[in-house]
Design goal:
2OG-Fe dioxygenase, about 35% strand, mainly beta, binds fe (ii) ion, 2OG-Fe_dioxygenase, dioxygenase activity, seven-stranded antiparallel sheet, single chain, Jelly Rolls
């Protein structure tokens, strides 16, 4: 039985489920990767910091390979097009600073990606090609009392990608960061405005590697804003978010490389 397949939502405690000898050592390295995350340039006022990397994962063998980064002004980035093959969406270009190589080589991260992928399920037609895994390291950080860090969108929403998994790495000196899961009909609403019976799950991720996954079409999800906790000094909530999408052969009419602009085309 798969809870994720039955209900669109599942909770996992990966510290229990992924036990191996060097787990603590590898977890410590992943935790340190959150110490110097650059600010999210697309939302600097939200007190959000992030790095990103994209990998492909092979069906059946579960081999993982990181896609190459782009270099801009000697810094590594992963470029990102929303609706990559659709010429109507050329404005939806973003780039995120890349995860560091040592993070991409971390054995625990690889185990987490593989664990998540094995939880996913697909139509046969979508499963003929490798899958795309987008790996976000996201930190919400608040330095002073009264400051807030906000996830976006700040309501019950769907991501538009088939599967997303969230893995808590660190929760320190904060209030908030409360998760809620509901039905697609409640998309765009705040959890306090829905019927209690419509709340499929609500919880805090508190310990490192406490995790959850959603199959997007069946649920909406929400995480509440974060403020500083009881102690002096800053507070933070660090999480790894992993989403999976199929890579399917595109319709030739929608492929940019079929438009014949050879001067703009490059050897890769
Ligand atoms: Fe989301």
């Amino acid at each position: 039985m798969s809870r994720l397949k039955d209900t669109g939502f599942a909770y996992y405690d990966l510290k229990k489920q992924l036990q191996y000898e060097d787990l603590e050592k590898d977890l410590q390295q992943l935790t340190l990767a959150f110490d110097h995350l650059p600010i999210d340039e697309y939302a600097p006022h939200l007190n959000r910091y992030r790095r990103y990397a994209r990998a492909i994962i092979m069906p059946k063998t579960y081999d993982i390979q990181w896609l190459p980064e782009s270099t801009v002004n000697k810094k590594s980035y992963y470029e990102y097009f929303q609706g990559s093959f659709n010429p109507e969406y050329t404005g939806e270009y973003r780039r995120f600073p890349s995860l560091k190589k040592e993070t991409m080589n971390n054995r625990l991260l690889e185990k987490i990606i593989r664990f998540d992928f094995k939880e996913t399920f697909w139509m046969r037609e979508d499963a003929l090609m490798p899958f795309h895994a987008g790996v976000h390291f996201v930190k919400l950080q608040v330095d002073d009392e009264g400051e807030e860090a906000v996830s976006s969108p700040n309501n019950l929403h769907q991501d538009g990608e088939p599967f997303t998994f969230a893995h808590l790495i660190k929760r320190h000196n904060i209030q908030g960061g409360w998760n809620a899961i509901s039905h697609p009909a409640n998309r765009g609403k705040m959890p306090e405005d829905i019927n209690k019976a419509d709340m499929k799950a609500s919880f805090y991720l508190e310990e490192p590697l406490e995790s959850y996954g959603v199959y997007d079409p069946l649920v909406t999800h929400y995480v509440s804003k974060v403020k500083t906790g009881e102690k002096q000094g800053p507070g933070e909530r660090c999480a790894i978010l992993i989403d999976f999408q199929p890579t399917v052969i595109a319709n030739p009419d929608e492929v940019r490389s079929m438009r014949g602009n050879t001067t703009e085309m490059v050897f890769v």
